Structure formats: C-alpha cells, structure tokens
Amino acid sequence: MGIRTVAVYSTVDKEAMHVKLADESVCIGPAPSCDSYLNESAILTAALLTNSDAIHPGYGFLSENADFADKVVQHGLVWIGPDADMIRKMGDKVNAKQTAIQCGLPVVPGSDGAINTIEEAIIWADKIGYPVMIKAAAGGGGRGMRSANNAEELKDIFSITKAEAKSAFGDDTLYMEKLLLHPRHIEFQVLGDKYNNIVILGERDCSLQRKNQKIMEECPASVLTQKQRDDMIEICKTAAKKMGYSSVGTFEFMFEDGNFYFLEMNTRLQVEHPVTEMVYGIDLVREQIRIASGEKLGYTQSNIIPHGHAMEFRINAEDPDTFIPNPGTIKLYSPTGGLGVRVDSAVYTGYTIPSYYDSMIAKLIVHAQSRPACIMRAQRALQEFVVDGVKTTIPLHQKLLKNSDVRQLNTDNHWLENYLNNN
Predict the structure, then answer these.
(1) pLDDT at residue 144 greater than cutoff 90
(2) DSSP string computed for 150-205
(3) Which residue from 30, 49, 120, 392 has the least number of CB within 10 angstroms?
C-alpha cells in the first residue's frame, strides 16, 4: 500500500523479524509485557515521536482494550479497528450477549446478566439445567471458565472462578450458560465500513482445541449445509448492520444438532484470519487500513465468492506430547512452500525464541480446490517444514491429518482433549 511503518518492540524482541522489516523501529520497554506491549504511554509516545498517523493493534495485548483505543483517538491518531464504544460493548460478555439478543443472534440459554453470589448461581443453574458453565464477563483466551454437573460442583468452582477472573482480567463479574456437550466452534468473519456497508466472509471451523486454545482451523466449515451457511450469513449480516459495526470482527458460535448459539464477538483481527483470506481472495489487514482511513468497502455480499478450501496449522514452540513451551535458539529454519502454501512467521535461522510471550512461532496455511486435496497438500507441506533446535507441534498436526475422525469430520470441541488423553 506504500505506507511507511514503525515497529515497536521490547528489549528481548530486538532481533525480531518485524523490527528488521519495518521502516523505523522504537523500543518501548523491557521484556515483561506489562512494561512494554501493555505500556500504553510508551506506545503512544513512540507513535507521536515518529509522526505516525495510525496504530494497528494486531490481535493480542491491547487489541481489544477500549480505554487504549480511546487514548489513541484523543492523541489525534487513527485507531485501526472498531471504535472504543463497540469494543467496550462487545468485550463484556454479559453486555455482548444482551446486544446479540437485541440484534437477532441465537444465544445459549443462560443467566440474564451477571451472577454475584453462589445462591444466585444455584437458582440459575436449576432454571437452565445442568451441566452449566460459569464464565468471566471480561474473560477470553480460554481463561476464567469452569463447568459444573451439579450444585456441589458449582459451590466448589464459583469462588475459584471469581478469584481467577479478578486476577486475570481485573474484573470478577461472572455469568452462566448451559454447557453444550458436543458442540463445534464455528465463527463468521464480519467486515464493515463507516457507512454501514457490511459483508460476511463465510465461516471458519475452529473445533480442534486444547484447553479452549485453537490448534487448527479451516474455511469453510464442511459440516454445514449450504442452507445453514446462507441463513447464518444473512443473520450475521443483519446483526452487524444493526450494531453499526465497522472494521473486521468475528461472531463466534457453538454449533450443535443443527443449531447455532452465540458465544462472543472478537472486535479485532483473528489469528486464524488467513484461511478466510485464502478462500475469499481478500486481504483483511489491507481492508482494515482502508476502512480506518474512511474508504468504502467497494463490494457487496453478492461479490463475495468463495473458492476452494483452506486450513491453518498453528506451529508452536512446544513439546508435541506434553505441550510444555520450548523456547530457545533455532538452528535451522526452512519453511515449506509451493502452490497454495503460505507461511506467516517471524522466525529465522539463528533466531532465539524468548520465553516471555506466546509460543506460536509460525502459521502454516494451505489452500486447495477441495478439503481432501487440502489435506493432502497440507501433509506434504508439514513434511517439508523444517524447524531444528526447538521442539514444535508439527508432529501433532501430522498425526491429526492421518486420523480418520479428523478426515471424516467426526470431531467436536472436546475431541482433541479426549484424543490426547487416550494417545
């Protein structure tokens, strides 16, 4: 796009690829994220000192922090994302559910609002019916949630979950939902401009998860019928329009027995956005920047035509059996390539992976004309992907692609946990 970029980095990320590739770079603090990537004043200072016009928050740290989004705008900068009020509204799970209901999205049966005491929790659980899930209203990333099969279990987990929510998110507000036993995780990609033009770029199946952390994602969700897909695209489009949503966002749903239940909305770019880009041929980050600068979408839902199938494999610097993070120096990094193969990564031969941040070091995205062809291409790509010096989750992905349940779509959100416990 011809836009000059400024990278911000912590001291431990001085040799990171984004620092080397940017036009300018500014160190914003020491390794701990609270002193660097979560240091709002340091980031704003870096932006102002370099005469930047806008800040792109990525998909971690401050990307869904409404107060930071407000500060960016107050300092005369453009926030590349939805406005702070939208982030605030959809970031609180209780408010998000109320908004979803008002906008016509199907929701999981649950409490009308926040639950403050164990007595309230038991009353709601009796009304909803066990099993139930207690969740932190400000939660995310799989934290601040626990399930209960009866009142005794609910008493055991209530105060623990409340304390974890306070510690992790600074907010101990909890709410309750019916626990679905065999759901799939299906999410719909929203894209809207400042003129209330909305398109939905299909859906992703993110059901292969471990401890609520996604491991592998694909687009489209092959378990859906075309009618289910079309109906949900229309429902999501209507809801986003009613909300006045601008920028990229994602409606996340649980899908069970042919029914969708709204889970949450991510008011940011998703880690798994590349599978949508590959199938729809639209660069979502470019669209974010265009929208933030006041441009119109320039296309309608009828222009959005999917092509083929894509899968994303999160390659983490972890032991593939125990999932213990394995930071260290990469002795040899030789990513795979070829037709329909994309690798998004920031590592290289000789790079030392720090122990301070998320263990994901690369995303392998594979695209082909059909799901079976995509699986075959992915197997070849994983076989050719070389990372020497640290352990990675590549062997796990290779095992999953050989598994008959994965190949035949006989999985749900709990399948991977069960598979790992039994193998």
Answers:
(1) no
(2) SHHHHHHHHHHHHHHHHHHHS---EEEEEPPSS-EEEEEEEEE-TTS-EEEEEEEE
(3) 49
